[in-house]
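Provenance

Sequences were taken from public entries as deposited. Structures were produced by running a predictor on each sequence independently, with no templates supplied. The record for Ribose-5-phosphate isomerase A from Staphylococcus saccharolyticus is shown for reference.
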Amino acid sequence: MKDVKELKLMTLDDVLSQIKDGMTLGIGTGSTIELLVPKIAELIQQHRYDITGVCTSNKTAFLAKELNIKIIEVNDVKHVDLAIDGADEVDNNLNLIKGGGGALFREKVIDEMAERFVVVVDENKLVDYLGETFVLPVEVDKFNWYQIAKTIESTKSINVNRRVSQDVPFTTDNGNYILDCQLKKGIDPYEMHEFLIHLTGVLETGYFLDVADQVIVGTQDGVKILNKNDR
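Predicted structure for Ribose-5-phosphate isomerase A:
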């Protein structure tokens, strides 16, 4: 039986084959992307591709620059040809929960800019409903994070926790906190997103709805390709 890393590695060739000379790439965040970035660097070097990257986190940007990938800021980009990222959950409609790495706002900015957004995951990320195996991250302002958490809990009857890393509150690259919401079966992701995004102090939610064009899944039986147009 293949382990999770092996399943992730299986997905990389299919996404690498979609990278062409002259592209501006949106490069995501997380363990799968950390496996992909060195492969992108190899591709650029082998084929002498002129590739520009925009990254969804400082961590990814640092890794890419270390490997001599040309990285620029998102405000200096007019368009993104292809965005590549992982996900924490993928449902049957290719809707996602993302933000396990805390980069959900920047991920959403870049993924929505992209002409095409491709997601690479292992089979453990496939779920029947969003929230089945993972929390919903919500990026919030530090000033009123507690009030936001209590409003969500009292209105939606779910548990909300401020994310902590190494015994201190986790802070995003934007200087904000993450609230992790324990979702229940039956919650409509569209309605929940609309409720959350209109709370004062909420920057963005980890719902990525109707944005993925393709999901490449590493499974014990091989690579599975799920396309938005086939839904």
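The longest strand covers residues 114-122.
Residues 31-47 form the longest helix (17 residues).
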